[in-house]
Write a structure and sequence with these properties.
By secondary structure, the protein is mostly helical. It is about 75% helix and about 0% strand.
Length: about 425
């Protein structure tokens, strides 16, 4: 089966290249793909040889057991994929696999294991290819719509090491990255190119459903951002109301109240309790100095609001090189410091300007702020935070690295 898996993988790469790898971006297709595949292999090496535990090892074990218990007979798989959990497996499995999103991912991985001979490393290539496809689609879309953002998109979605590493291999983040990038590309094409094709609409619905199943908070914040900005634009264009932050704030409040009914964890009365409980559990399980330090002021909403600046900074730039213990946080810290310095470069050169009529700037601003703050507050461990950043950091890097002066400066100093 492993040879069949290799053949299928090569066919998929060939089809992706022949259909999308030509043109102005063709020369970076294989370097970007190779980098992504190596990152996926690196994830496996880090977990199996360094951590010796973690999600990817848990998923590998569970998927192997699924394939061994169900077998290769196709007739047995629909019932498992549609209705079953992992209770039929006569083995002790971690509690995390009882979560619906982990179960969903294990089902995806089990299907891949069927035609890769249960090879972790070959299956890792498939998931990295899926993640790469999403990023490649978005980069091609941005390059077509906004050529001035082309360089920034290439760096952010194809070559920035921390983002590429933690969105590769057998991790839920690989699938989430592919879905987010694909959804962003579809939204841009529908909005700017007016491409109301059934494949874009249908594909967008499928990607959103998968994203909701894997990382529902990413999907919820994305939908909230798009809906709030859409309502704001409707108020402005339909009713000719003068644009301004007050109307946008009103739109946000209305949409947040609506979204609080979508999931138990989003209820206004419990969202802070859920984040605080998660924060306490993660800090309790983390070594000293390996997590964000919050100001010990107040409880509940007071504690959250007081620590908003801390959460925002941590969500964008932590850990820094002097934070955390071990080689991996230090490497991450170097890249985070780089992002911080480049951010300051752009702010001092151009400032931060949000145009009232530029919906995409507002969507990105809302999306980035909400995710950076809530993820850093609820998941303050530096390792976890670095991995979760893949859901929003590349969209921020798109802005950071889209300044030609900055790119010329980097080339003059490092090339």
């Amino acid at each position: 089966m492993i040879f069949a898996g290799i053949f299928i993988f090569l066919i998929l790469v060939y089809l992706l290249y022949t259909r999308t790898g030509t043109g102005g971006l063709g020369k970076i297709f294989f370097p970007a793909l190779l980098f992504k595949l190596l990152c996926g292999i690196g994830v496996g090496v880090i977990y199996f040889e360094h951590y010796r535990a973690g999600d990817t090892i848990t998923f590998d074990r569970a998927a192997n057991l699924v394939v061994q218990n169900i077998g290769p007979a196709i007739r047995h798989w629909p019932a498992f994929l549609l209705f079953s959990d992992l209770s039929f497996i006569d083995s002790d499995l971690p509690h995390v696999l009882q979560e619906s999103r982990s179960l969903f991912f294990v089902k995806m991985l089990s299907i891949v294991y069927l035609f890769t001979g249960q090879s972790y490393w070959l299956s890792s290539l498939f998931f990295s290819l899926v993640s790469f496809t999403g990023g490649w689609f978005l980069v091609r879309t941005i390059s077509r719509i906004r050529p001035d953002l082309k360089s920034g998109a290439i760096v952010a979605f194809l070559f920035f090491p921390p983002v590429m590493f933690w969105s590769s291999g057998i991790l839920k983040d690989s699938v989430a990255f592919a879905c987010l990038a694909g959804l962003a590309g579809i939204l841009i094409r529908v909005n700017h190119l007016k491409e109301f094709r059934w494949q874009w609409i249908g594909g967008g619905i499928v990607l959103f459903m998968v994203l909701w199943a894997i990382k529902y908070h990413y999907a919820a914040v994305l939908l909230l951002s798009v809906t709030a900005v859409g309502l704001y634009r409707l108020i402005f264009y339909r009713f000719r109301v003068k644009p301004g932050s007050v109307w946008f704030l009103c739109s946000m409040i209305l949409i947040i109240l609506l979204f609080s009914t979508f999931h138990p964890n989003f209820r206004l009365g419990s969202v802070i309790e859920v984040m605080a409980a998660n924060q306490a559990a993660i800090i309790g399980a983390s070594r000293a100095g390996s997590h964000v330090e919050f100001l010990p002021l107040g409880t509940g909403w007071i504690h959250f609001l007081v620590n908003l600046p801390v959460s925002l900074f941590a969500g964008m730039y932590m850990p820094l090189p002097w934070q955390g213990a071990g080689i991996l946080p230090k490497i991450a810290g170097i890249f985070n410091l780089m992002v911080l310095l480049f951010t300051l470069f752009r702010v001092f050169k151009d400032g931060i300007k949000l145009k009232d009529r530029d919906a995409w700037q507002w969507i990105l601003a809302v999306y980035l702020l909400i995710l950076a703050i809530t993820i850093a507050y609820s998941s303050p461990n530096f390792g976890t935070l670095e991995r979760y950043k893949t859901g929003y950091l590349p969209f921020f890097l798109l802005w950071v690295f889209s300044d030609e002066r900055l790119l010329k400066f980097i080339k003059s100093k490092f090339w």
